[in-house]
């Protein structure tokens, strides 16, 4: 331990004595680590936000039945256009045939204008739901209350609104129990949902929820429904999806060889599709940026070779008074690793600052993960160790007599 601390002290003294040269030496590492940390932080932030969005829309412990599922080709999309609409009869069939299903919520969506006195909001996302919506954890009330099952079953003219809808229509005024105009129909606000934030600059809080019967009075019952299905336990989700498939095939009188004319999507399936679509892009970004580390390592190796040449007499003197080869190797490697890690620390700090700045001034989210700090430091330590090995071995092989003669 004493030997390591002594070597570290010598390395730090050498870096401090040649500040400009040291800075230029680790500049490649600084740029590389800054870029890697910034990219990783943005990727983690994006993954977290997309995961949160998928879970909020699909539910963490539920899955959805839709007119068409995830399409992977134009052929699939063309074929799915002929699928029949999802109806309440499908929801009843799932509940009737699948004992592993706890609740089924039917929903339909559309957009409309909201008005309160002289304030107007265009294109608010409206979702009409059945009374089972309370079984799902999609909505979290900040003020007021949820719609009661009786209000939903009756199709009462009541609303649950997103945070931005309440803010834009009412500002600091409490919106609960206020009556607003939705496409010419008066609705009473019962509750305001917690703020969800935005994704890529698009607000996730510009929405409203109403009873499905009220929705269909306004927009008709032609639009296809989507069904949110909640299993009795997250452990049986896959089995519940299989039972749901069987129930729908029976209800739609499909033959054995007929394809499914509906789609089933879970949050896990959506996340897997997202990861598959973005994995190659992220890998290329990280790979391109990582090339800078190799360039930085080559610079460090060249500088350490120059340091060995400059300190030939010092190395010869140390060997003459008893220093072993491994002592010389250890000293040069310590200097190389220390130099590289200093660049890594600077680069990690700048990377986080850059990621947070991008997150603040753009729609891209960022997340600072502790493991990425360790990754940045360990990567630069590995670069310093690998590219410092040759200069260290060359210094260790110096003949002490020849080294002392050299001026």
Which properties best describe this structure?
about 55% helix, alpha+beta, about 15% strand, about 400 residues, six-stranded mixed barrel, 2 domains
Number of strands: 12
For the biggest sheet, the summary is: 6 strands, mixed, barrel
Number of helices: 14
Shape: elongated
User: Which structural category do the helix and sheet elements fall into?
Assistant: alpha+beta
Radius of gyration: 32 Å
Percent of sequence in beta strands:
15-25%
How are strands sequenced across the largest beta sheet?
2-3-10-5-7-6
**Separation of termini?**
34 Å
Topology:
Blueprint: H1 2-17, H2 19-25, H3 27-58, E1 63-66, H4 74-80, H5 88-97, E2 101-116, E3 119-129, E4 141-144, H6 149-154, E5 158-161, H7 163-170, E6 179-182, E7 185-193, E8 198-199, E9 202-203, E10 207-211, H8 212-219, E11 226-231, H9 237-251, E12 263-266, H10 267-310, H11 312-320, H12 325-361, H13 370-396, H14 400-405
Parallel strand pairs: 3-10, 5-7
Antiparallel strand pairs: 1-11, 1-12, 2-3, 2-6, 2-11, 4-7, 5-10, 6-7, 8-9
Helix pairs in contact: 1-12, 3-10, 3-12, 3-13, 5-9, 10-12, 10-13, 12-13
